[in-house]
Amino acid sequence: MDPIYHHLKRRTLQIIAQFPVPDFHKDFLWATDRSSEMLATHIVVSELRAFVAARIDNDFGHGLDHAVRVTLDAGALILVEGKAARLSPKILSRQLLLAQCAGLLHDINRKEKDHAASGAEYAEKVLKTFMLSDREITDVSRAIRNHEAFKTTIEAKTKTGRMVSDCLYDADKFRWGPDNFARTLWDMVSFHNTPVPLFVSNYPKGMALIAKIRSTFRSHTGRKYGPGFIDQGLAIGEELYRVMKTEFGLY
C-alpha cells in the first residue's frame, strides 16, 4: 500500500475522534450490552464465531472485525425492535440468536460475485449442524440473501423472519458511517493496491454511494437512527477530502 494511505488513515482517525458516539449506541446501551453478552457467552454463537474466524478472509474490508460489528448491532437492533413489538422473552432471545448468526455469516462468501445469494446457501448448510430449527435456518438464510442494498429482496414468511432480515440489513449499513473511514476504506485500497490518483478520482463517486444508502434503512429503529450514521460518515468523508486537497495536494 502506498505510504500516503497510512498518513491519510492517521488523519482520518483524528477527524473521527472529533465526532460523538452515534446516537443509536448512546440511546440503546442496554441493548448493545446484552448483544455483547450473547456474543461472548452463548455456546452456539461462540462456536459459529470460531467457525467463521477460521474461514473468512480478513484482507478485503469485510473480515471478522466487520462481521462482529454487524453482529453486535444486529443483535441490539433486534432487541429494540422485539421489545417494541412486545415479543415474549423466550422469542426475543431466539431472535437475538438468529440475528447474531446472520451477522457472523453474512459476508462469509464476500469475494464471490453474488456473495449474498451464495452466502445464504452456504449458511443453510452450515447451520444444519447447529441447534436451530428449519424455520430459523430459513430466516437466517433469507436475511443474508437480503442484506445488499439496491437489490430485489425475498419477502420473509413470518414477521419475526422479516425482523431478522431488516435488522441485519440496517446493522450492515450502519458500517457506512464512521466505520467505513476508520477501517473498511483502507482495507479495500490495500487489498486492491489502488493507485492514489485513481483513489482520488473515484472518491466523489464513493461519497455519492454512501449518500444513497441514507434512505434505504428498513426497520423502524434503523430508519430513525441509520441516517445519523450516514450523516457522520459523509461529514468525515468531506473533511477527509478537504484534507487530501489542502494538506496533501491531491486533486
Characteristic terms for this protein:
mainly alpha, Hypothetical protein af1432, 0% strand
Q: In percent, how much strand structure appears in the residues?
A: under 5%
Going by CATH, what is the homologous superfamily? Hypothetical protein af1432
Net shape = globular
Q: What helical percentage do the residues reach? A: over 70%
Query: What is the gyration radius calculated from CA atoms?
Result: 18 Å
Structurally, how many domains make up the residues? Answer: 1
Under CATH, the topology can be stated as Hypothetical protein af1432
CATH architecture, please? Orthogonal Bundle
How many β-strand stretches?
A: 0
Low-pLDDT runs of 5+ residues are none
CATH class: Mainly Alpha
Walk me through this protein's architecture:
- The chain is mainly α and 251 residues long.
- It has one domain (3-246): Orthogonal Bundle (Hypothetical protein af1432).
- The chain has twelve helices and no strands.
- It has helices at residues 3-16, 23-27, 29-41, 43-53, 64-84, 89-105, 115-127, 134-145, 159-174, 178-192, 196-213, 220-246.
- The radius of gyration is 18 Å and the shape is globular.
- The model has no long low-confidence stretch (mean pLDDT 95).
